[in-house]
Amino acid sequence: MLEGKRLLLIISGGIAAYKCLDLIRRLRERGVHVRCALTRAGESFVTPLSLATVSGEKVFRDLFSLTDESEIGHIRLAREPDLVLVAPATANILAKMAAGIADDLATAVLLATDRPVMAAPAMNGRMWEHPATQANVARLAGRGVHLIGPEEGEMAEADEWGTGRMTEPADILAVIETFFAGAGRLHGRRAIVTSGPTYEAIDPVRYIANRSSGKQGHAIAGALARLGAETTLVSGPTHLPDPVGVRVVNVEEARDMLSACKTALPADVAVLAAAVADWRVAKPAKHKIKKDAAAGAPVLKLIENPDILASLSTATAGRPALVVGFAAETGTVVERAKRKRLAKGCDWIVANDVSSGVFGAETNTVHLVTAAGVEDWPPMTKSAVAQRLADRIADALEGVPATPTS
Ligand code: CTP
Predict the structure, then answer these.
(1) For the chain, give me the number of helices (H) and strands (E)?
(2) What's the CA-to-centroid distance between 329 and ligand 1, angstroms?
(3) Residue 357: what pLDDT?
(4) DSSP class of residue 242?
(5) Atom nearest to 194 CA in ligand 1
(6) Among 195, 307, 349, which residue has the most ligand 1 atoms within 8 Å of its CB, making it the best to mutate?
(7) Cis ω for the linkage preceding 320 (within 30 of 0)
(8) Which of 210, 305, 352, 364 is the catalytic position?
């Protein structure tokens, strides 16, 4: 499965760097062509000679080296591999990646690459837990960088325990194997994902909205794209970066979201994760509504928005083979979701309990409701939910003819 794959391993300066030698050996045993780029700090922990010996390749170190650049430039180094892996990824290199700093060969490659990137963080537990590191990691994950670990355990410093150990080479290898096994499973498929809230205008400056962050929908779009689907993300206003490899259509109102979805058809799968406003103001004011003591507070008449999920699910022509809705529920979550699946005519409902702290959070506990029954998924990060859902979608579409594009 890994035979013939090309991997660029970027080694930054952490004590775990010595484990790379074992990782390279395992990768090469499986036929992977491994090239190494080593940072200056990395050289303090593992020598270029040992990396060159184990990888059987020249080790790249210097952005401005005449020989490095004349043999293979950093742009080619960035574009040639099937996968770029940063291991160990120190707090410093993660910060540079998040900020887009390119002050050495390794970071220049990371900024120039259009290939999938994985990072296996390794650092002291306090450094990992620091809000700066956590913010950097969240930013990178939002951009589609696949994080492996870190694990909990004894730190390099005597008597210290915490989360920050680099994932063991055998486990990193397993993640890489899963990645390549999945890559391309949705190749030739088209996907539409909705995400975020909608803003419904009251007047030119005010609107009705909700607390959706868009994290789950954006993560799903990224996961489908990573499996090879040509993915259109129709998103309401969010603060999130566009997921890598996804075509993003930004909208504000529910009606625009519906028409953008219709324009993006045909598709094999539609995952409607947006928190669409159920109602909009019947007649938004053309001018800013002014306070008027005599008239009192304005009364807003609301009318129902189109239901995008129901509309795509019941379309007679061009219905995607698989339509997946979300149900944000409180109380009897699964029962309500089952009813919603039938009422809206979609194939699956991903149900989540929003009675406490889901909006904007990193984790989610969901139930997948299908015609076959209900699966309770354990609590996991929104990106893990996205990955699992994308895998399930790929399973479900297996053997289903791809939707013709014209
Ligand atoms: N949805 C949609 N268009 C709407 C409202 C909802 O596409 N106008 C989709 C959401 O993206 C989600 C699913 O319908 O996939 C369920 O949304 P939810 O808000 O839970 O359900 P509602 O239909 O709004 O029902 P209620 O609020 O009464 O539970």
Answers:
(1) 15, 22
(2) 10
(3) 64
(4) P
(5) 11
(6) 307
(7) no
(8) 210
- Report the 10 Å Cβ neighbour count for 97: 25
CB 81 within 8 A of CB 57: no
Assign 175 a pLDDT band (cuts: 50, 70, 90).
confident
**Residue 312 Cα: closest atom of ligand 1:** 7
CATH architecture of 6-182: 3-Layer(aba) Sandwich (3.40)
With beta carbons less than 8 A apart as the criterion, state whether 367 and 374 touch: yes
* The two structure tokens encoding residue 206: 């005010």
**CA torsion, points 306, 309, 313, 314, in degrees to nearest 10?**
-20
Q: How far is the CA of 195 from the centre of ligand 1 (A)?
A: 12
Band the pLDDT of 385: cuts 50, 70, 90. Answer: very high
Ligand 1 centroid to residue 348 C-alpha, Å: 13
The string of pLDDT tens digits covering residues 147-156 is: 999 988 877 7
pLDDT of residue 72: 66
Tell me the domain boundaries of the chain.
6-182, 190-397
Residue identified by tokens 């809206």 is 344
- 190-397: same fold as 6-182? yes
210 as an active site residue: the answer is yes
Q: How far is the CA of 327 from the centre of ligand 1 (A)?
A: 7
Answer positive or negative: Cα dihedral of 258, 259, 264, 267.
positive
Ligand 1 atom, smallest distance to 343 CA: 23
**Separation between Cα atoms, residue 227 and residue 259, nearest integer Å:** 26
Average pLDDT score, the chain: 92
The CATH topology of domain 190-397 is Rossmann fold (3.40.50)
The arithmetic mean of pLDDT across residues 300-319, rounded, is: 96
Whole-number Å distance, alpha carbon 273 to ligand 1 midpoint, is: 9
44 has a pLDDT exceeding 80: yes
Model pLDDT, residue 363: 74
Which phi and psi angles does 177 have, rounded to 5°? -65, -45
Lining residues, ligand 1, CB within 6 Å: 194, 254, 272-274, 276, 278, 305, 307-309, 325-328
> Nearest residue CA, atom 28 of ligand 1?
278
Closest by alpha carbon to 367, among 320, 332, 322? 332
Q: Whose CA is nearest to atom 21 of ligand 1?
A: 327
Closest ligand 1 atom to Cα of 309: 7
